[in-house]
Structure formats: C-alpha cells, structure tokens
Write a structure and sequence with these properties.
The structure is a single chain. With 314 residues, this protein is an alpha/beta fold. Helix 2 links the parallel strand 2 and strand 3. The chain is globular.
Length: 314
C-alpha cells in the first residue's frame, strides 16, 4: 500500500525563505509517486492550467449553496447548542491548502489549513454560508509549525520523506493528548466547524516505531473524542483499512485517490451511515471516476497536487 502521508517538499524551503503563504497539504503522493518526489510549488494567485477542461473556481460549485439568511447560524443553517455540524453524502466541497484562500467558490463546505488561516478567513466563509473544516496534522511533527517545540524528542520518529516532518509515536497518548487538544482548541477558537486530522495511518508506514493497528485505533479514537468534546465534527483521513472499525467514531471521511487505488468501495460504510465521503483524485480524468462517485454518492473532484484553488468537480 502506498504511503498516505505525503507533504510538500517545498514547504520547508519556503518557510526558510520566510514566505508566509506556504500551504500544508498532508496528502499522500499521487499514483506512481515516491516519497521524495518534489511536487510543483503552489500558486497563491491565479489558477493552474487545467489538465482536462476548465476548472471551476470563482462562483462555481457542483452543488449550489446559498448565503446565510438573517437570523440563521453562521453556516446559514440554525445550529442548536450542544449539536455539532454533520456533513451529509453528496455535499460539494472545496479543499484549498494554499493561501490566500479563494473564498468565492460556491460550495457549502471548505477545508483549509489551521495555522495558515486566521479567524477572519473562517468568519468570511461563514458569512457566505459555508461550513469550514480545520486541516491539521496529528500524526506527524512539523518543524515549521509554531508548537513544534512542545513535542519531546522521545516521540519523534523517522522522516516521512518530506523536509521538516517526522512521524510521531502515537503510543504515547499521555504525551500527545494535551498537545493535540491544544491544536483542536485553536480550531475551535478560530470558529471552525470540523477538523481533518491528517497522518492517522502511521501504523502502515515505516515510522521508526513498532506501531500496530490497535495503537492506531486507540490514537484515532482519542482524536475523535477530543474533537467531539470541543463541539467539532471530525473526519477520518484515508486509513481505509480501519473504516469498518472507525465509522462509528468519525462523522465523515476525507480520502485521496480511492479510485486510483481501487479502494472506493471500502468507504461506503460512511455513506450507509449517512456520513459524507469527501474524495479527490489527482491523476485520473473526471470521466473515469465521476460515474462511480455519483453512484456511490461521494463528494468527489479532481484537484491539482498542490491543492490550490482549482477544482474539477463531478
């Protein structure tokens, strides 16, 4: 199974050059890519040339979304106290981990980086009637993040192939829980509705630690609990092998390249439970994967590897 923990090689270099618009996509390399392969540098303005047909960006969707109505909750839908947002199958979405975020894409769901975006960006998206997911890595240590120094050396494992990033020893729950709780506190403080915790399948990778499937289940369930305690919905990122055991703990899933890896059927328990499957492909043509995605009721689109604003939805 290919590694599912890819990250930009250029991010560390950009951070070193004090470029503050470095995004942080924690996606696995596309089909055929190897760790250490350098993807293109993200564009923070404009849209990359389309691989097939024009991308939908400004004012576009794949499913219409209306601005918030007066008196409604920040998402345009009344929110009852004590109840978290639950995305449903088929909702269109935008996943942009570059900055600045293009807030004009007309979809009901955005997924953006915690550290690279302010509360004002989240508020702007809410005013437009969008729910906003907080992207944050919970299974790796990133030297370019502001809380990196809080991670003791004892939990730092092997590099996952990307500069400045190392796997975490997820067996150390007492050490990692307060650190991850603080990150999720930031998601809540900035007003996010949900969290996408990345790198939650370390047990399938060479981390430097003898991680087991049971270790991963315990860690992922801890992350889900922390999110729920803060009123945030939480998505299972990839980790398709454990969907059957975790679908009850998570509120949706975010998946990369299930079509390319012939794994999409493994995600259907989420749909059966009335939970969204947010899915992207990088190399496949929309004409190849969209018929299956529509049949499965997935929220699917093609994206550039750098996860800029361009999107080709089903």
């Amino acid at each position: 199974m290919a590694s599912r923990a890819g990250r930009w090689l250029v991010c560390g270099a950009l951070a070193a050059a004090m470029v503050t618009s470095c995004g942080s996509p924690g996606h696995r390399p596309p089909s055929g890519a190897q760790n250490g392969t350098k993807p293109p540098i993200a564009s923070t303005g404009g849209v990359s040339p389309p691989p097939s047909g024009p991308p939908t960006v400004a004012g576009s969707s794949g499913a219409a979304s209306s601005p918030a109505s007066p008196g409604a909750g920040h998402s345009g839908v009344p929110v009852r106290p004590g109840h978290r947002w639950m995305p449903t199958p088929g909702e269109a979405w935008q996943w942009q981990l570059t900055t600045p975020v293009d807030t004009s894409v007309n979809v009901p769901v955005y997924d953006i980086d915690l550290f690279e975006n302010s509360a004002a960006v989240v508020s702007r998206l809410h005013a437009l009637g969008r729910h906003v997911i907080c992207y944050v890595s919970v299974g790796s240590a990133e030297s370019f993040r502001p809380d990196y120094a809080s991670l003791p050396a004892s939990v730092l494992g092997k590099s996952n192939g990307w500069p400045g990033e190392r796997w975490l020893d997820i067996r150390e729950l007492p050490v990692l829980e307060p650190i991850m709780a603080a990150r999720l506190d930031q998601c809540r403080a900035k007003g996010f509705d949900a969290v996408e915790p990345d790198n939650v399948d370390g047990y399938t990778n060479a981390t430097g630690f003898p991680l087991t499937a049971a270790d991963q289940l315990a860690y992922n369930r801890m992350i889900a609990r922390l999110a729920h305690e803060r009123g945030l919905s939480v998505g299972l990122k990839n980790d398709v092998e454990q969907v059957g055991q975790l679908v009850g703990d998570f509120d949706f899933t975010v998946n990369e390249e299930c079509y390319a890896f012939d794994e999409c059927a493994m995600l259907r328990p989420f749909i059966a439970a009335g939970k969204a499957v947010f899915h992207v492909e990088y190399n496949e043509a929309t004409s190849a994967f969209c018929p299956q995605s529509r049949a499965y009721r997935f929220s699917s689109m093609k994206k550039n590897l750098d996860l800029d604003a361009a999107r080709w939805p089903c």
